[in-house]
Amino acid sequence: MIAFCKATLAASSLMLFSAFAQAATPSIPMQIEQSARAELERQMAASGLTEPQFEIAVVTARPAPPCSQQVAVEPLDTRFPQRMRFVARCPDTPGWRYEYVVRARVTAMVAIAAAPVAANEALTDTQVTIERRDISNIADPISNPADAVGQMSRRMLRPGDILRSGQLSSPVLVKRGDAVMMIARREGIEVSMAGEALDAGGKGAVVRVRNAGSGQVVRMRVAGPGTVEPIDMAISR
Q1: Bridging pattern class, strands 179-186 and 227-230
Q2: Who is most buried in 50, 170, 174, 202, counting CB within 10 A?
Q3: Cα–Cα distance, 150 to 146 (Å, whole number)
Q4: How many alpha carbons fall within 13 Å on the CB side of residue 96?
Q5: Are 221 and 233 in contact (CB under 8 A)?
Q6: Consecutive H or E run containing 198
Q7: CA angle at residue 171 from 165 to 176, to 5 degrees?
């Protein structure tokens, strides 16, 4: 009788411990959500976006079978927040493998047009502001308004439009055939030579320049209107 009671108590304790262990382990949808959130946080940190926030929903087609071991969760495709794919694997023998779809809504503080902007018009301080917007389906939003000021929009912008790096370009500061000044600075010494631009380009663009004195053609970087500098020099601000 005593032995039976002890065996019953041991079995009950084991069942209770197993129940506690299962309760302490997050459900598979919760693990998927945690993995999706971690992936989104990594992506936002790499992109430099300001104050990102996420709304995440795990699409579960059917409940997964039981698994006696820890289920492993791995990302399959996280390129698009509105449709990310994850896989859950059970290492049992035999185990199982289920795929899950995650739909996320991502918002962040991004630069937007504060006033109408014509195509090929350089943006000014008064035309750019910052607001929280949904960027779930936008791959290249600009987070810092200063990065947009001075850039030209390739298309007309309306107030409230999100500014995207792929839609902006640097204004042309040097045109083909322009007389330019080739300026090199080393350890406080500045050397300048006259040249002719063989390409057009905006600030930071690499163009070919013919030295007016020697006729040698070299590759230089546009530093400002009518000014170029060696490629290995730090970019002028």
Answers
A1: parallel
A2: 174
A3: 8
A4: 10
A5: yes
A6: none
A7: 130
